[in-house]
Amino acid sequence: MPNIALLIWGIGDLSGGGGSERFFADFYDQYQKYSNKKFKLYYIIDKDSVENLNKVEKLKSKKNILSFKLISNRFKSKGELLQLMVLIIRHKIRIIHLPLYNVSYIPILKGINSLPGFIRPKIVINVSNCYIVPYLEDKQSKHHLETVNTYSPLFNEVKVNGYFSWYKNFENYILSSNYAKRPDHVYSISSRFSDTEKFYPEQKENLVVFAARLDEQKHPEWFLEAVRIIFSSGADSVCNWKFMICGDGPLREQLIRKSKEYNLNEQLIFTIEGQLHKILNKSKVFVSCQDFENFPSLSMAEAMASGNAIIARNVGQTSYFVEENQNGFYIIPDSPQGLANSLLKAIAHGEQLENMMADSVNKMKTRHTFLNFTNQIEQFWQTILN
Fold first, then answer.
1. Contact of 127 with 150, CB cutoff 8 Å
2. Which of 37, 47, 150, 220 has the most CB atoms around its CB within 10 Å?
3. Mode of pairing for the β-strands spanning 309-312 and 285-288
């Protein structure tokens, strides 16, 4: 049974986000209990990251956790690489899989690259940032240069054996590129899973939830504007409904001020909740307004498992999660007014809304399952080793 290690460090406060960090902690916990696994899985991680995952009730398993100590002096790169090399040799690690990447990882990745062939494990990078391709391709974007500076060292200076991507557009981009360091393999997933131990329908309330990091890419202001439009319309169907913005981020204070200006204090609730099941298990509708992509959003997967109809922009691979009139509606037109239209349609559809909520649960039980995801990642790891 080949040995694989997830490697991550520097995880901060997860109360307002951290989809990739949460997802791989869930996957790690479930994989340790999986009786038919084809690999032995370790987790190389620093103490603070473990504590921050534990605060949001993630990474419960203590099995095969390998401690990685961060160094802050001038010997940082060499000291951290030495630790990693000892763990690789001691546990015969064949693949190092990074659940996420940032440019601060480059020294360690270069260090792994430089190891002798009989020691060096294969390097796998998980790609869960849906901004990469749009920002790299759009030279007019204010994020273009930052994205180039972040990913150019990875694409040109590090020999990555495989990219395990959430997105087909990233797979296509890499395969058609002429970067200096071409990977051996790129794979994009078509299903994911959510840890549903705590995410399931409870006694439902007339509640619509927007749960995400409150930044410009997620467009929480669309939700705020849609709520304003709905209550300005005087529609009777929404009089006993509540709307919630759950999350933290740079736009939060601005949104709260706007809500007060619109006199939405009684209709719109702001909260920060690290344990989303406490909200999603009771809500009926989940909203996503983000640019580029909705798959495989962890919060959307959790909302579906909890029995929420989904209202979302039809961007990227959203159709892997949301089917129009089956478990939700797309935002048409693509604007706050379109969101208001879809919300009113969902709220007015009584029995159909209940069917949509049930269909979301069914999709998570049959399509986006631990077994389906595990088959994908195990086949990918086997391909990398071969």
1. no
2. 220
3. parallel
DSSP H or E segment with residue 340: helix 336-348
User: CA 281 to CA 269: how far, in whole Å?
Assistant: 17
Tell how strand 65-67 and strand 93-98 pair up.
unpaired
Is residue 334 scored above 80 in pLDDT? Answer: yes
Spatial distance between the Cα atoms of 169 and 136, rounded to a whole number of angstroms = 12
283: nearest Cα among 231, 330, 246: 246
In the chain, what is the straight-line distance between the N-terminal and C-terminal CA atoms, in Å?
A: 14
With bands split at pLDDT 50, 70 and 90, how would you rate the model's confidence at 264? very high
Token pair for 46: 């620093």
83's tokens: 């630790």
- The pLDDT value recorded for residue 78 is 87
Residues 6 or more apart whose CB falls under 8 angstroms from that of 193 comprise 26, 27, 301, 364, 368, 369, 370, 372, 373
CA quadruple 287, 292, 294, 299: dihedral, nearest 10: -70
Local confidence band at 142 (pLDDT 50, 70, 90 cut-offs): very high
> What is the CB neighbour count within 10 angstroms for residue 316?
20
Question: What angle (nearest 5°) sits at the alpha carbon of residue 116, between those of residues 113 and 122?
Answer: 50
pLDDT for 16 equals 63
Residue 149 corresponds to which tokens in the numbers above? 């500076």
- E-assigned strand segments in 177-218: 185-188, 207-211
In 3D space, the residue among 173, 159, 208 whose CA is nearest the CA of residue 346 turns out to be 208
Structure tokens at 2: 């080949």
Q: How far apart are CA 319 and CA 165, in angstroms?
A: 17
For residue 358, pLDDT over 90 is answered with yes
139: Cβ–Cβ under 8 A, 6 or more apart, which residues? none
**Contact partners, residue 369, CB within 8 Å, separation at least 6:** 191, 193
Q: In this model, does residue 17 exceed pLDDT 80?
A: no
User: Phi and psi of 82, rounded to 5°?
Assistant: -60, -45
Q: Are 140 and 179 in contact (CB under 8 A)?
A: no
Beta strands (DSSP E) in 9-75 are: 40-45, 65-67
The type of residue at 250 is: P
